[in-house]
Design a protein that fits this description.
Blueprint (H helix, E strand, L loop, with lengths): L3 H14 L9 E12 L9 E17 L4 E6 L3 E6 L13 H14 L7 E7 L9 H17 L6 H16 L6 H8 L2 E5 L7 E4 L9 E7 L8 H17 L10 H6 L1 H8 L1 H25 L3 H19 L11 H13 L4 E4 L7 E7 L3 H12 L4 E3 L8 E4 L1
Parallel strand pairs: 3-5
Antiparallel strand pairs: 1-2, 1-12, 2-5, 2-6, 3-4, 6-7, 8-10, 8-11, 9-10
Helix pairs in contact: 2-3, 2-4, 3-4, 3-5, 4-5, 6-9, 8-9, 9-10, 11-12
Length: about 400
Amino acid sequence: MVDTSFAQELVGQLRESFGDARYERVLAVRAPGRTELAGNHTDHEGGEVIAAAVDRYIRGVFAPNGTDELRVMSEGYGLTTVRASELGARDEEHGSTAALVRGMAALFAERGFEPRGFDAYIVSDVPGGSGLSSSAAFELELGQAFNALWADGALAAADLALMAQRAEREWFGKPCGLMDQAAVALGGIQHMDFADPTKLEAKSIDFDFAKHGFAVCIVAVGADHAANIDDYAAVPKEMQQVARELGKQVLSEVRPEDVLQAIPRLRERLGDRSVLRALHYYNEENLVERRVVALSEGNVKQFLELTRLSGTSSAMLLQNVSIGGSAEQPSMLAIVLAERLLMGRGAARVHGGGFGGTIQAFVPFDVLDEFSKGMDAVFGDGACSVCNVDHEGARAEWI
């Protein structure tokens, strides 16, 4: 549930930010970050993933203000104001807080709910650009708030996830899949299948890494993947170019053997990287399915072995660990260091969309202290942190 004591502290900040206003009622909202456990760049191709909500949160308080202004004060980012009558997408707002507020509000209006003014104060410990999906957490923060403020809780978590994806794609300007929003909305560890883009197919997996002696670590490597949005966007673009060359829209609609047979033509028309990224998709799909079985059976050893294979595919075929010919390659360096520290006892891989931000490591508890110190020595104090699964997902509660 929402931490109401913490929310009460935010109410003071809310009143101070908006002229010590008096509010008849206040809504507290909490949305977690997420970690991808399997399925690196498969969701946007109609593939499968395993993802989990984690205990890094965007928290906020929202109060109706009796105006037509949607006013969001984000700690560290300042005030964003959007009029309820002006909700169309704006190119100049791509990548901004305003784009997400405007987009989520517009999608509620599209479903027949009337956006009405509110004041909000929001804080976050989901680092922006870290691969923990601060954007999806913010979208679901807004989604749960608007659901309570305007729709009396009528929309289910899956509906909010689909709306959040549209807001990110059409208003924010990032061609994302649905994994991030779904993980944040649903909570827990989820096996998701995106074969049908119009609905969310998800099944919970009951697995506890801690009970098997492992910590799930996220290592911030000192690069902001948000600065590399064009590199991120090139991944689905190139995969889908391969699919279109073979008469389909996404790779889940194409048989892997058809890609293999068409390699000479694909190389000539699209280049080698597009072919390699398509082949990564089929590798990763197979590895997701096998990791679902491993987790469901409690076979952590098999899960780790398959995760190492997945990491190799991301680095060699998907190529989302480093940026072009840049001399700065912190993610690749972090993975190499992690493997040396783990000595085959755990696993490390690129995390999320890649291109900077973070890596993920599964670390035995008896070497966790040494691992953390080793990573922090290179990437800075606090670079390595342990993430626990959040089992609730995004939530809202009147206080």
